[in-house]
Each structure stands twice: as C-alpha cells, then as structure tokens.
C-alpha cells in the first residue's frame, strides 16, 4: 500500500500541558482513516495539525513524501470540512463553491462546469442560486464537502462533520461520503467520537486516549480483538465482570447465549427486557449476583418475562489484568 500521509514523532503540547505526544501514523492512499475517541483525547489536534491549523511542537508531517509541517493551510494539498459547515451566508451556493476556484484563476466556463459536476456528485443538482439558509443541515454539509473536493485536495480532512445532524440524516451522509470517496479515490482522514460512525465508514480506525494511540486496526480487528480494556469499552457494548484472580472478563453482548433454565449450566434471572428496534437486550442477574446483558432477537425476547429463571453460556471472552482494568 502507498503511504499518502506520514505523521512522524508528532507532539503538539498546549500551554496547559494537554495535547498529543510522540504520535506515529501512516495513512494510506485511497483509504478512510478515522481518529476515534472521547473529547480531549487528541484526535482533532492531529487532524488540525495535518491541515496546518495547529502548530507542531515536535515531529514532522509529510504528504506524498513532501514535508508540509511548516506550510500555511492554504499552501497544503489538503481540504478541510468543519462541523459547522463554514459556508458564507451572504453568498449563493454557486459563489460559495466558486470562491476557491476564482482565487486559483480558473476560467469562468471551467468553474461553471466543475460546479455542475460536483453538485451532481453530491446529489444536489440545480441549487446553485440558493443560499445556505435555504438548505437543510445535510444539504449544507454536502455543499461544504463539495467545496473542499472542488479544489482536488490530496487529502480530505473532516472534523466531526455530521455531529450536528439528526440520526437519519447522519446515516445517509455516511453512505454518501463513502460513495464520494470511492468515486474519486480520495484519501480521507475523519474525526468522530461516535463509534458506530467510525465502524460504518472506516477502512482503519485509530482509537485515541489522552494524547496517545491506544490501538490502530480495521473495524473488525478493533471490535473482535481490543488490545486494552479502554478500547474494549469504547468500541461496541461490552459486559465487564471481575474475576477471583483480580482480572476483568470482557464479554460482548452477542457472546452471552441465553435459553430456558435447563439449556445451559450457568443460571440467571431476567432483570429487564429492553426492546431496541429489531432486537432486544436482556439484563440478567447471575447466581453469584453479577449483572450481564445479552442481545436476543425480538421473537426470542417474547419468550421471557422479568423474573424468569433462565440459563446462559459465554461463547467468547477476553481477559484484562488488574492494572489494565484500573486505567
């Protein structure tokens, strides 16, 4: 795989001591790499450093083997899409899109053709004369993405671009971004705190914690084999049970198999049944007073009532030592 962006020994330290330290990261050509983590973990700090909006304390950033660490944002081969769209409200969609091309001295005829093509690409044909206030949030974000890709960046940077949208529009925008990225063979660096979003669109995910990379891998690798309890707790729903050895047992909800009281050796009582769309979550109280949750189908959940005695089996689990459990 061709490395498009190389982040080497990167440190960005703020006056209060926060930031990121000694980050090394290779971002491949034509992939969507997502920086995932809670607020303050350093994900946006890295993204803004690649875009030139954060001053680097130490280390270097290369795009296509070219050093860009000290270049101004406008001199970098990157395009940035922010959470708040950043469209000029007094300009039409056409003028918002044309602005960067005009600065590059692109001919009017070519600008018109490029804008028509990019609006077709983001499925917003014919809105050139509208103003941002006349568009929905999802439409505004599509225009913001269109504006960035019009400048043909080597790397597209997106900072929580869908977080202000409602759930249904967010899901649609994820699909649209994936389609656009594949159509144009873009290299995308995406920042989010939403694990579902990261799992759904990413080729690889970087899980961040307190300025460091906790794990880097494909969505399947991170979901199936989290290298730490922190990663396990951040990606997907998980049961955590203390053991007699002082370790912590981590079990995915789908790996807690349930059945009638006589089916499995381990016994429990149904504490609660929560319907969640097409499936349900059973909350269980085990014989030794521990609490477990299990995913079941809606059809299966109808077999149980709160207080019922059932049995269960753990199909798969991971163990984390005591030191890791306290982190």
From TrEMBL:
PROSITE patterns: ABC_TRANSPORTER_1, ABC_TRANSPORTER_2
GO molecular function, one term: ATP binding
EC number assigned by the record: 7.6.2.9
All copies of domain ABC transporter, residue ranges: 5-235
UniProt keywords, alphabetically: ATP-binding, Nucleotide-binding, Transport
Any Pfam family matching the protein: ABC_tran
InterPro entries: AAA+_ATPase (IPR003593), ABC_SmlMolc_Importer (IPR050093), ABC_transporter-like_ATP-bd (IPR003439), ABC_transporter-like_CS (IPR017871), P-loop_NTPase (IPR027417)
Xref: SUPFAM superfamilies: P-loop containing nucleoside triphosphate hydrolases
Protein name per Swiss-Prot or TrEMBL: ABC-type quaternary amine transporter
Organism: Eremococcus coleocola ACS-139-V-Col8
């Amino acid at each position: 795989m061709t490395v498009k962006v190389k982040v080497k020994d990167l440190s960005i330290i703020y006056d209060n001591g926060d930031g990121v330290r000694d980050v090394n990261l290779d971002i491949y050509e034509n992939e969507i790499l997502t920086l995932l983590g809670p607020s303050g973990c350093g994900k946006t700090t890295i993204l803004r450093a690649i875009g030139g909006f954060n001053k680097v304390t130490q280390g270097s950033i290369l795009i296509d083997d070219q050093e860009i660490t000290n270049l101004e944002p406008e001199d970098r081969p990157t395009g940035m899409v922010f959470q708040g769209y950043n469209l000029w409200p007094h300009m039409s969609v056409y003028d918002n899109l044309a602005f960067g091309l005009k600065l590059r001295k692109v001919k009017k005829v070519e600008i018109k053709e490029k804008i028509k093509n990019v609006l077709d690409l983001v499925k917003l044909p014919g809105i050139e004369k509208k103003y941002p206030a006349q568009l929905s949030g999802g439409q505004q974000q599509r225009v913001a993405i269109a504006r960035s890709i019009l400048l043909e960046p080597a790397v597209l940077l997106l900072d929580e671009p869908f977080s202000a949208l409602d759930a249904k529009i967010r899901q649609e925008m994820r699909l649209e971004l994936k389609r656009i990225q594949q159509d144009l063979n873009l290299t995308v660096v995406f920042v989010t705190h939403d694990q579902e979003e990261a799992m759904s669109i990413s080729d690889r995910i970087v899980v961040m914690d307190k300025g460091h990379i906790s794990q880097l891998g494909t969505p399947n690798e991170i979901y199936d084999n989290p290298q730490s309890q922190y990663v396990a707790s951040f990606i997907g729903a998980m049961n955590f049970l203390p053991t007699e050895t002082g370790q912590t047992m981590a079990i995915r909800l789908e790996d807690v198999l349930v059945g009638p009281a006589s089916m499995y050796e381990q016994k429990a009582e149904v504490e609660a049944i929560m319907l969640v769309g097409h499936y349900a979550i059973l909350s269980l109280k085990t014989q030794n007073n521990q609490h477990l949750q299990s995913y079941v189908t809606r059809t299966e959940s109808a077999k149980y009532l709160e207080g019922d005695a059932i049995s269960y089996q753990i199909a798969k689990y991971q163990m984390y030592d005591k030191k890791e459990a306290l982190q």
